[in-house]
Design goal:
Strand order of the largest sheet: 1-4-3-2
CATH topology of the largest domain: 2,3-Dihydroxybiphenyl 1,2-Dioxygenase, domain 1
Radius of gyration: 15 Å
Shape: globular
CATH superfamily of the largest domain: 2,3-Dihydroxybiphenyl 1,2-Dioxygenase, domain 1
CATH class of the largest domain: Alpha Beta
Oligomer: single chain
Number of domains: 2
Largest sheet: 4 strands, mixed
Strand content: 25-35%
């Protein structure tokens, strides 16, 4: 059975959000992009719909949360290596995001994270159940 996941995130400034995530290496599906939304390609069958707050509100049963005031979701994204984790966090901060903690090494998993321009938390990690450094 084929499945896809679309995570919908409200954003204050769609063009700025597109520029932010493009700088991190993400691409976008132009067929699902207009002045109020874009479909960011995260991976095979994994997408993040970045929606203006107004467009998001049209789908949601409650007003959009302010991700800077409350954590609505943790988006965890597995990368291939520790270097890739560090590089993405560094680039996110350079693009206008921020980090909220130091990198953490759990032996089997290395993780760090950033908040995007709207405060959404992105946990990026490299995991190896055998504890080998990659």
């Amino acid at each position: 059975m084929a499945r896809q996941i679309f995570v919908n995130l409200p954003v204050a400034d769609l063009k700025a959000s597109i520029a932010f995530f493009a700088r991190l290496g993400f691409s976008f599906n132009p067929e699902f992009t207009d002045d109020s939304a874009t479909c960011m390609i995260v991976g095979e069958n994994i997408y993040a719909m970045l929606l203006t707050r107004e467009r998001f509100a049209g789908f949601a049963p409650h007003p959009p949360a302010d991700a800077r005031a409350a954590t609505e979701v943790l988006l965890a994204l597995q990368l291939d290596s520790r270097a890739a984790v560090d590089a993405m966090v560094k680039e996110a901060v350079a693009a206008g995001g921020n980090t909220y903690n130091a990198p953490q090494d759990h032996g089997f998993m290395y993780q760090h994270g950033f908040q995007d321009r709207d405060g959404h938390v992105w946990e990026v990690f490299q995991m190896n159940p055998r504890g080998e450094t990659v």
